[in-house]
Amino acid sequence: MASASLLGQTGSSSNFQGSVVQQKASAQVLALGLDDAIQRGLRYNLGLMLQAEDARSAGGQRLQALQSLLPSVMGTAQDTVAQTNLQAEGLRGPGFPAVIGPYGYTDFRLTLNQALVNVSSLENYLASKHDFRAGQLSVQDARDLVVVTVGNAYFLCLADAARLNSAQAQVATSKISLDQAVYSHQAGVSPRLDELRARVDYQTQQQSLIVVQNQYAKDKIALARAIGLPLDQSFDLTDSAPYAALDDLDAQQAMQRALKYRNDLKALQEQVIAAEKSRSAARMERLPQLNFEIDYGEIGVNPSNSYATLNLSGQLTAPLFEEGRLRGDARVADAALQQMLAQENNLEGQVRADVQDSILDIQAAAKLVKVAQSNMELASETLSEAQESYKEGVADNLAVSQALSTVAQANDQYVSSLYQHNLAKLSLARAIGLAQLQYKAYLGGK
To answer: Fewest beta carbons within 10 Å, which of 125, 167, 337, 338?
Structure first.
C-alpha cells in the first residue's frame, strides 16, 4: 500500500533489503521484538551504511574545496653531489677544464602559496558545505527508510505467523469433518460422495498449510537480511500485531509537519543551494585571480656554511581567450541547478501525496479490519452450524465444505487487513518524516 511510494527515496530501495552481517549465529533461538529488529537494522542495514559513506565522501570533498582557500606550505630538503663535464656542455677552449667537481651543496626550503583573490573557489567551497549538509540529512532520511523497511518485513512475518496458525486450525477442523464423513459413510447414513468431498477439503487445507509455511520461512529470511542476522540464526517473533485505531487524522496538519520534518526534502533543498553556489562559481571563473608566494630557504656547501634566500612574488591571472570553456561551465552549472529545482518541486508534491495516500490507506484499512473481523465471526458461526447439521444427518457435508472455504478466506482477509493497517500507520510516520522518532506512537494509535 502506502509503503511502495515511500521506499527508495534515498538511494536504491534494493540496498535497504540487504545488510552487512557482522555476527555469527548462536545455537540459542533469538527472541526478536519489533524494537530489537529496528535497532539491528539501524546498525547493520546496507542502505543506511552506504548512505553514511556517501556523507563521509561529501565531507571529504568539502575539505578538498577548503584547501584551495587555505595557505599551501611545502617543505623540501635537498643534499646534492655533482660532477660536470664542461666539454659535453659545449665549453671548450684554452683554460677551460674538461671536468669540474665533484662538488655539493645542501638546500632547505619552505614555500608558501596563498590565493588572495579567488571568488570562484570560495563559491565552490560554499557549495561543498551545502552538499555535505545534504549528505547528513540523507543519512537521517535513510534511517526512516530502515524503520519502514524493517517494520514492513516484521509485519509480513507476523501476518505469516497468523496465517500459519489459522491454516493449522483449518487442517484440524477439516480432519474432524473428514473423520465424521468416514464414520457416517461406514455406518451407511451418508453417501461416499460426502467422504470424498471431505477428503478433498482436508488435502486442500494441507496444501494451503504447506504454502503458508514456505512463505513464512522466506519472509523470515528477508527480515534477517534487512537487519544483519546470519541466515542460519533461528529466531522467534515476540511482538504481535494488535489493532489500534489511529483517530483524529488532520491531513492539513500532517502535511505541514511533513514539509517541515521530511529529511529527504530538506536534503534536496540543501542541494539546490549547493547548485546555486556552483553556478555562481562557474560565472566567477571570468574574474582575475591573485596568488601570493613566499619562498624561503638556506642553501650552502653544508648546513653550517649556508646562506638564507628569500623570494616574494605575486601573480595576477585572468582568462582572456577561453570563452567556450567559460560559457560551457556556466551552462552546465545552470542546467544542474534547473534539474535540482525541478526535483525539489516534484519531491514536495510527492511528500504531499505520500501523506494523503497514507491517510487514505489508514482509513480504508481500518474499515477493512472491522468488516473482516465481522466476516470471520460469521464464517465461524456458519461452519459450526453446518457441522452440527451434518452431524445430526439433516444435511450433507456440502455446506461444511463451503463453510471451510469461507472461514479460510475470512481469516486471510482479516490478517491482510490488519497488516495493511499497521503498515499504513508506519508509512504515515515515514511520510511525515518521523518514522524513527515516533513509530511506536503511530503504531499504538496515538
So the answer is: 338
